[in-house]
From TrEMBL:
Domain of life: Bacteria
Protein name: Nitronate monooxygenase
Entry keyword annotation includes Oxidoreductase: yes
Keyword list, A-Z: Flavoprotein, FMN, Monooxygenase, Oxidoreductase
Gene3D superfamilies given in the database record: Aldolase class I
Family: Belongs to the nitronate monooxygenase family. NMO class I subfamily.
Natural source organism: Persicimonas caeni
């Protein structure tokens, strides 16, 4: 499957996922300068005006870097918009994306034709988060350029379906670009995603544990120490099922016995976007990909490693089938 032109000059088929309270300009810039796609949620800035300033600063810095390093692959940047009535800033933030011609817009909680048309008006690209076939079909009907398959094992608001099954279920109803999310932390994982039929890999948890992320040092350390069995899928934090680290839930006095018994979980009320952000400040999310994370490198160091692992895996696969 062909991918949009904005991804053609990247060093690796990787998107550093937009993460609540973690992805800021530092992580985006480091990712793009390393040759992959960097993204952040618009709501990580407290105001629309602040969001505009971030976008302008990122554009200016990347343009300067590209001019000074003409031979270096520079990845595009993108913004995640929450397209839901609980987000009062959606329209204002979308206007900033149009005004500043943000190359990539990733929508969550609603695939809306109005948003797609607005971004397409200046040549931008729209991807949409999905966890099942029905949502993928709605996204296709809205005219998105691609979808992000959030499979079981992803951090944050993850799905529950195995990535092999999810990709097989959705590819027949969507012929656009597919980004796969869920427990991807190494270059071999990127190669595996490509071999499965995905066009790009979406990495979140791996980039929390980098020098440039805005995650607290204790958060990064917890990720390095966690194992897949420490990841708990629960709606108890915000009313919507998401993956959180057991250690963080325990530190915030959640009753693990109740959380692990579906019959006792109190779903509570779905929080507004602003209230959910407050909840996630102290309860830390991660995906099953923690199993491959044991240190906190710079983004540049991480991408160097990912590239070496990816190329080695591709060579091995080619030799096997050759």
């Amino acid at each position: 499957m062909s991918v949009p032109e904005i991804f053609q000059n990247t060093r690796l088929p990787v998107v550093a996922a937009p993460m609540f309270l973690v992805s800021g300009p530092e992580l985006v810039l480091a990712s793009c300068k390393a040759g992959i796609t960097g993204t952040f949620p618009a709501l990580n800035q407290r105001t629309t005006e602040g969001f505009r300033e971030w976008v302008v600063d990122i554009k200016d810095e990347l343009a300067k870097f590209a001019e000074e390093n003409p031979d270096a692959p520079v990845g595009p940047f993108g913004v995640n918009l929450i397209v839901h009535r609980s987000n009062p800033r959606m329209r204002a933030d979308l206007e900033v994306c149009v005004e500043q011609e943000v190359p990539l817009v990733i929508t969550s909680l609603g695939a809306v034709t109005e948003v797609v048309d607005a971004v397409h008006s200046y040549g931008g690209v729209v991807f949409h988060d999905v966890t099942n076939r029905r949502h993928a079909q709605k996204a296709a009907e809205a005219g998105v350029d691609g979808i992000v398959l959030v499979a079981g094992g992803a951090g944050g608001h993850a799905g529950t379906t195995n990535p092999f099954a999810l990709l097989s279920d959705i590819r027949p109803v969507f012929d656009g670009t597919i980004i796969l999310a869920g427990a991807l932390s190494t270059g071999r994982d990127i190669a595996a995603a490509k071999a499965m039929g995905a066009d790009l890999a979406y990495m979140g948890t791996r980039f929390i544990a980098t020098a440039e992320s805005r995650g607290q040092d204790a958060y990064k350390e917890m990720i390095c120490e966690a194992r897949p069995e420490d990841i708990i899928h629960t709606p108890a934090v915000s009313g919507v099922p998401a993956n959180f680290m057991r250690q963080s839930l325990e530190q915030n006095d959640f009753d693990m016995e109740k959380l692990l018994d579906p019959g006792q979980v109190d779903f509570g009320e779905k929080l507004t976007v602003s209230d959910e952000a407050k909840a996630w400040k102290t309860v830390w999310s991660a995906g099953h990909g923690v199993s491959a994370i044991d240190e906190v490198p710079s983004v540049a160091e991480l991408v160097d490693r990912l590239e070496a692992e990816y190329l080695e895996a591709c060579r091995e696969l080619a030799a096997e089938v050759g």
